[in-house]
């Protein structure tokens, strides 16, 4: 038994010695081509460093907010109708999903594109800033106007065919990955906290901030307006009715008082009939006026309770931090990648050479 153990130990030691010898042989083979490793590493490092230097710097602007729908179902019903017009509605979706769907709609994008913003001291439509900053005239194969703009007004029905095509491509362009691998416009929310996040990414700080703030403002205005449109109409109609009843009541009371003044308390039969009729009208109008005022105040209360409240959490602040890798880090990564590729090639080459030699 001890002889077998001794032989096994010798075999193990021999295998280990062979393995170490082979490892040394492979190491020396790879070390022999150190100049190739450095050369390829330098080439890859230079290529990735150059790519990082020519790639446009992009600036992400992030805005977070919450939506409080204290009224329950009133505001949500109107929004469901609005979303249905865009093919975005869903009976069982939460209001959070509806806000995101509406924010991604072409309608809100149009409002954002044709909001004027000041970028680098120039006041113009966000759509024109985006076209110029991202060089989209060449990409979309269109010619700007004499003023260097694509859009000179914000009336979509009055656009030319080229302007409509560019507008539709701009809307799709928002969702296409940018150079840094992120969409130009990203919309999301956290279900646990109910906090929405809008992020706009462009090659200009002012443009990124203008895009995300315009998206938020236009979404808030449109959402609140449509969610309370019916209640606003009810309040307007009731206000007109209350004003009309108040004027009619005042006029009738004045007629009754005038009749009493002329008769000095002495009424003939015809006078008593007229006085009784005016008194009944005053009573009826008083009751109707009071009921209308009560309904008006109730409707105003429901309107205030059903109005969605947008509460900003964080607005983007300049200066924004640019995203993307620096030239130095990209060059280091490229050099390491090139070196690993050469080492792998030399190892496989030596492996095949030994296999052919043994055969």
TrEMBL record:
This is Chain length determinant protein. The chain crosses the membrane at residues 33-50, 328-348. Residues 228-262 form a coiled coil. It comes from the Bacteria. Keywords: Coiled coil, Membrane, Transmembrane, Transmembrane helix. The keyword Transmembrane applies. It comes from Neolewinella agarilytica. InterPro entries: Bact_polysacc_biosynth/exp (IPR050445).
């Amino acid at each position: 038994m001890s002889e077998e153990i001794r032989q096994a130990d010798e075999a193990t030691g021999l295998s280990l010695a062979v393995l170490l010898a082979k490892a040394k042989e492979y190491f020396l083979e790879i070390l022999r081509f150190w100049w190739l490793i450095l050369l390829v590493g330098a080439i890859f490092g230079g290529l990735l460093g150059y790519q990082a230097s020519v790639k446009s710097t992009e600036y992400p602007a992030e805005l977070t907010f919450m939506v409080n729908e204290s009224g329950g179902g009133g505001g949500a019903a109107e929004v469901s109708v609005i979303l249905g017009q865009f093919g975005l509605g869903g009976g069982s979706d939460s209001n959070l999903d509806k806000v995101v769907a509406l924010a991604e709609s072409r309608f809100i994008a149009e409002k954002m594109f044709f909001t004027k913003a000041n970028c680098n001291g120039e006041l113009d439509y966000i759509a024109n800033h985006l076209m110029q900053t991202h060089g989209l005239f060449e990409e979309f194969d269109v010619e700007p106007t004499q003023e260097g703009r694509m859009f000179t007004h914000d009336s979509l029905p009055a656009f030319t065919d080229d302007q409509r095509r560019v507008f539709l491509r701009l809307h799709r362009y928002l969702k296409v990955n940018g150079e840094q691998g992120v969409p130009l416009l990203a919309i999301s929310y956290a279900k646990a906290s109910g906090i929405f996040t809008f992020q706009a990414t462009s090659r200009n700080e002012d443009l990124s901030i203008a895009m995300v703030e315009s998206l938020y403002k236009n979404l808030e205005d449109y959402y609140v307006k449509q969610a309370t449109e019916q209640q606003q109409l009810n309040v307007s109609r009731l206000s007109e009715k209350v004003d009309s009843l108040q004027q009619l009541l005042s006029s009738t009371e004045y007629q009754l008082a005038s009749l009493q003044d002329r008769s000095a308390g002495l009424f003939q039969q015809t006078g008593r009939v007229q006085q009784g009729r005016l008194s009944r009208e005053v009573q009826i109008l008083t009751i109707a006026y009071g009921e209308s005022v009560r309904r008006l105040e109730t409707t105003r209360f429901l309107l205030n309770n059903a109005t969605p409240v947008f509460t900003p959490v964080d607005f983007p602040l300049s200066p924004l931090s640019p995203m993307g890798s620096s030239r130095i880090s990209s060059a280091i990564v490229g050099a390491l990648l090139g070196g690993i590729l050469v080492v792998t090639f030399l190892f496989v080459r030596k492996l095949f050479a030994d296999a052919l030699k043994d055969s």
